Amino acid sequence: MFEEYARYIDEGTLRELRQLAKELKGVRVLHVNSTKQGGGVAEILHRMIPLMNELGIETHWEVIKGDIEFFKVTKKIHNLLHMPGRESLSHQDVITYMRQTYENVSHIDTDYYDVVFIHDPQPLGLIVKKRLGQKWVWRCHIDISTPEEEVWKFLEMFVNGYDGSIFHIPEFVREGVQIPAFVIPPSIDPLHDKNVELEEGFVRDVLERFSIDPDKPIVLQVSRFDRLKDPVGVIEAYRIVKRRYDCQLVLAGSFADDDPEGEEVYNEVLEKKGDDEDVFVLNLPPDSHREINAFQRAATVVVQKSIREGFGLVVSEAMWKNKPVVGSNIGGIRRQIINGVTGYLVNSVEGTAFRIKQLLANPEARDTMGKNAHERVRHSFLITRHIKDYLLVIYRLLKS
Ligand code: UDP
C-alpha cells in the first residue's frame, strides 16, 4: 500500500520512512482513544494503524468504555479546556471520571506495549497503569491555550506522569508542563474513501439522492453537530449571502459516540433552518466517507466557522479537493489556510458572508486558490508526514 503514496510524495520521504521503521523493528505500539467513530481522531487512527503495521511496527488500537454520565463529564472537560465556562467540574464529575478510569484500567491491556499513545483527555487517567520501561505519550488534539484553570490543574496531575506530549501547533503547548512537548499537526490520507478521486457521475448521484441541485452553487460545512463548530453561525452567514446570490447551504454532519450533546445541537440547527428549502441539514451515518467526499467535491465554497478548533481535518480535506476554504481565524484552522492564498480567515458572521460572496462572484480566484490549497496539503498535511513524525517521537523516546 505504501507504494501508492509515491504518486503524492517524493521517493526520498518514502525511503526515510522505511529506514526509520527498520530502526524501530520489534517495537510494540498502542493507541487509545474514546471512540471508533466520529471526529478527526478516529478518522486518523483508522488509517494510521494499518500503515504502521505495514511498515513492520506492531500497532494496536483500543477504545475506552464509558457510560453516558462519563461522556457527559468528558464533554464538559473538552468544552472547558477549549474555553473557560460558567461552571467548572463538580466533585461528582471528578468521581465519575475516576470511577470509569479505574474500570478501563482493568479492561485495557497496556503492559504488552513499549509505547502507548493516549489521545485527548478522556483516557488520560490510564497513566496509572504505566509499567517500568514503557514510554507513554499524551497526544492532545484540542486547543488548550486558554483553558479553565481548575480543569487543567486536575488533568495536569496525570499529564506530568507521561514521558512526552504532542500538540498540533506551538500555541497549544502549555507553559508549566514538565514533560517534553512535540508539535505535530495531524493529516489526511489521500487514499481514504473520503479523499480519493470520484467520478463526476457519482458526485451528481449523491447530490440527487439528497435532493441538492447540482447546478446551483453550494456552500458547505462538514462537521459533527457541536456548538463549537457554530452551525447556527453558518446559517446566519448564508442568509446574508443569500440576499445577493442564489445558493444552497449544505450542513453535513453526524453524532460521535462520545458526544452526548449532538442530538440537541442537531435540533437547534433544524430550528434555525426553518422552512428554507435551500438549506440541507444532513445527519449522515458515520461511514458516509464517499458521500462527504462527493459533497466536498461538489461544493463551490467550503466553510469552517468553528468557535474553537484543535485542527479541523475537514479544512485539509476540502483543500485537497482544490477548494478555497473560508475558515475561522483560530487554532489549527489558522495553520492550514493561508489568508488570501488558499482561502480566507474570518472573525465574524459578517466576515464569513463577505468572503463567501467574494468567492461565489469570482470563479478564477476560486480556481487559483483551490490549486494553492491542494499544494499546501500535499506539502504539509498528508499522512506520510504524520507517520514519520510519530516514528521520530518513538525513536527519540526509546533510543536517545
Ligand atoms: N466527518 C464525517 N462525517 C460527518 C462529520 C465529520 O465523516 O458527518 C469527518 C470529517 O470528514 C473529518 C472528521 O470527521 O475527517 C472531523 O475531523 P475534524 O478535525 O474536522 O473535527 P473533530 O470532529 O475532530 O472536532
Looking at the overall shape, the CATH architecture of the largest domain is 3-Layer(aba) Sandwich
Secondary structure: number of strands:
12
CATH topology of the largest domain: the name is Rossmann fold
User: What is the CA-CA span between the terminal residues?
Assistant: 30 Å
The figure for the number of domains is: 2
Give the biggest sheet: 6 strands, parallel
Q: What's a quick, concise take on this entry?
A:
This protein is of the alpha/beta class and 400 residues long. The chain has helices spanning 11-23, 40-54, 68-82, 91-107, 149-159, 200-209, 231-242, 262-273, 289-298, 313-320, 331-336, 349-361, 363-380, 383-399; strands at 28-33, 58-63, 115-119, 135-139, 164-167, 181-183, 218-222, 248-253, 279-283, 301-304, 325-328, 343-346. It has two domains: 10-187 and 382-399, Glycogen Phosphorylase B (Rossmann fold, 3-Layer(aba) Sandwich); 200-380, Glycogen Phosphorylase B (Rossmann fold, 3-Layer(aba) Sandwich), CATH 3.40.50.2000.
